[in-house]
């Protein structure tokens, strides 16, 4: 199983149809961070971690211009959707946020 296929399987738990090219784009973007188990996961209970997701992923990579509170609400909704999973894969969290903001096509390039 390829690295991307592993993440596609995880994303499938939370969304009906998966854009595999977008998953591959996220995997490529994260690169070396996925090699380390700790950095490949999102700690949803860590405020600093969630701020990093908002600033680095939502604002910087996805270009979201909403107020921080709105972005935080979207992040919280994604975390809530994944609450049954003790470990939240960074690729899946990022995918679901990109899906929320309608940015999957931009990641699939």
What does this protein look like?
By secondary structure, this protein is mainly alpha-helical. It has one domain: Jann4075-like (Recoverin, domain 1, Orthogonal Bundle). It is 60% helix and 4% strand. It has six helices and two strands. The protein has helices spanning 3-12, 20-30, 47-61, 68-81, 90-100, 104-107; strands at 41-42, 88-89. A two-stranded antiparallel ribbon has the order 1-2. The model has no long low-confidence stretch (mean pLDDT 95).
What is the number of helical segments per DSSP (H or I, 4+ residues)?
A: 6
Helix-residue proportion: 55-70%
Judging by the overall fold, what is the CATH architecture? Orthogonal Bundle
Shape: globular
> What is the N-to-C succession of helices and strands?
HHEHHEHH
N-to-C CA distance: 22 Å
Task: Please tell me the overall pLDDT.
Answer: 95
CATH superfamily placement: Jann4075-like
Low-confidence runs (pLDDT<50, min 5 residues)? none
- Structural class comes to mainly alpha
Strand neighbour order, sheet with most strands? 1-2
What count of structural domains? 1
Q: What is the radius of gyration?
A: 13 Å
Write down the CATH class: Mainly Alpha
Strand content: under 5%
The CATH topology is given as Recoverin, domain 1
Give a quick account of the main beta sheet: strands, pairing sense, barrel closure: 2 strands, antiparallel
């Amino acid at each position: 199983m390829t690295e991307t296929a592993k993440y596609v399987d995880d994303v499938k738990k939370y969304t009906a149809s998966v854009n595999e090219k977008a998953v591959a784009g996220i995997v490529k973007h994260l690169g070396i961070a996925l090699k380390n188990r700790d950095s490949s996961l999102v700690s949803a209970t860590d405020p600093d971690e969630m701020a990093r997701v908002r600033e680095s992923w939502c604002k910087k990579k996805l270009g979201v211009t909403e107020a921080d509170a709105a972005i935080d609400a979207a992040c919280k909704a994604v975390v809530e959707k994944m609450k049954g999973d003790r470990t939240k894969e960074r690729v899946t969290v990022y995918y679901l946020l990109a899906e929320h903001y309608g940015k999957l096509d931009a990641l699939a390039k």
